[in-house]
Amino acid sequence: MRALDAFDVLTLWERAAPRHALDRRALLCAWALPELPVDEIADLPLGSVTASLLRLREASFGARIDSHADCPHCGARLELELVSSDLLQPVADAAPTIEVQGWRLRAPCLRDLAAIANEPDTDRAARQLLARCSLRVGSDAMALPDEALREVENALEALDPNADLALVVHCEACGQHSTAQLDVGLLLWDEIDGRARALLGEIDALARAYGWTEGEILALSAARRAAYLAMVVR
Question: Which helix (H) or strand (E) holds 217?
Fold first, then answer.
């Protein structure tokens, strides 16, 4: 996986900033998987998208992830120190299908999430997602009993375990355990956004001081840019 350089960061930031979060995730995944046709990215299993974004994030920003979560029991801020290699579960190379409750299902993809993104009712959204993932013609997900729906949802999670990275965390303040979700797409975007804004600040300062163009400044190594910036602010 090739790390993002300064040019890449600014290009991705400019292209991704105005997009919906799901479109942004697809764009970042397409960057991480240049060997795939762009129109295939939206149909990848969500776990494949997560793994690709995590590898891109590790190559560009390092394996360590410093994050946080709020304890749902007492509200305390929990500091999380994670390592990329510990987050993904091993899966088969190809996304298989699974049969449960008489339903033959495939793993959800970004296109499925986009189709239900505007549904405010979480139960209806879950059933619409199930219907989209069903390979059985005429499936009526709306008529599925709640207990059966939970079983189907659990089967989908087992089918694509990296689709949703859930972490069990312990709160030292109240002693309770809870589950925290790690959104790798949001994590990677936040780091790209922060790095891009820092780069723009560096470009502005060096352009004002030396009259260099953006391209000339970005062509400098990070170490040389930092050295020139140190002389500018003295």
Answer: helix 214-219
Residue with tokens 């390979």, as numbered in its chain: 135
Please answer whether residues 91 and 164 qualify as being in contact, where contact means their C-beta atoms are separated by less than 8 angstroms. Answer: no
In this prediction the pTM is 0.90
One-character DSSP codes across 6-60 = HHHHHHHHHHHTTS-HHHHHHHHHHHH-TTS-HHHHTTSBHHHHHHHHHHHHHHH
Closest CA to 128 of 171, 26, 111: 111
Q: How many C-beta atoms lie closer than 10 Å to residue 176's C-beta?
A: 14
User: Largest alpha-carbon pair distance within the chain?
Assistant: 71
Q: Are 131 and 141 in contact (CB under 8 A)?
A: yes
pLDDT at 119 exceeding the cut of 90: yes
Three-state secondary structure call for residue 204: helix
Q: Which of 52, 46, 80 is nearest to 66 (CA)?
A: 80
